[in-house]
Amino acid sequence: MFAGKTTALLGRMLSERETGRNVEVVKSSKDTRYGLDSIVTHDGKKLSCWAMPDLSSFRAKLGDEGYDKLDVIGIAEAQFFDDLYDFCSKVADHDGKTIIVAGLDGDYLGRRFGSVLDVVPVADTVTKLTPRYVYKAACRQHYVDSLVIIEAARLFLDSLKVQSDPHVEPVPLAW
Q1: Per-residue pLDDT in tens (0 to 9) along the chain, 175 residues
Q2: How many domains does the chain have?
């Protein structure tokens, strides 16, 4: 979040279009934040797109003629597509399309999220964006520091619950 993924995707798609290439963007229909018919940056820039529950139905939705004319396919919110790897492999290797993928590779706990990491080994290039200090996104050190604070607060609150129960012996806290 707030790393500039959509901004980078939008900029790249517009750049590809300016060079005369035929482009389309698809995003997960799970992303309803700004409506289903466009990708939108946090500062309000937008580009029309197709909202799909999966990527395998993209060609049918576009039609064979429309699909054959495509040069570049942008994929927004890629972490929500379970068929991301299969789609990217087929479309790039067999159909000769350029694929530009934008999505999260991890969740807020730093764990793998979705299938974005599955396409990294077959990607021609990878650009990893890091978040700005807005909302919950944070650099690794601040994220780790916040976990320590959260755990300390949890232990403290748990100790208050235990101490308020007359049947449980209070546990001294070591800080």
Answers
A1: 555 788 888 888 889 999 999 999 999 888 777 777 877 777 778 777 889 999 999 999 999 999 999 999 999 989 999 999 999 999 999 999 999 998 888 887 888 889 888 988 888 777 777 765 546 555 666 666 666 677 777 777 777 665 555 555 554 544 4
A2: 1
Q: Is residue 175 part of a domain?
A: no
Residue 171 located in a structural domain? no
Looking at residue 64, which CATH number applies to its domain?
Answer: 3.40.50.300
The answer to whether residue 125 is domain-embedded is yes
Task: Assess whether 151 carries a catalytic annotation.
Answer: no
Kindly report the three-state secondary structure assignment for every residue of the chain.
CCCCHHHHHHHHHHHHHHCCCCEEEEEECCCCECECCEEECCCCCEEECEEECCCCCHHHHHCHHHHHHCCEEEEECHHHCCCHHHHHHHHHHHCCCEEEECCCCECCCCCECCCHHHHHHHCCCCCCCCCCCCCCCCCHHHHHHHHHHHHHHHHHHHHHHHHHCCCCCCCCCCC
Catalytic residue among 16, 24, 65, 77, which?
A: 77
pTM of the model: 0.72
Domain holding 109, by residue range, is 5-152
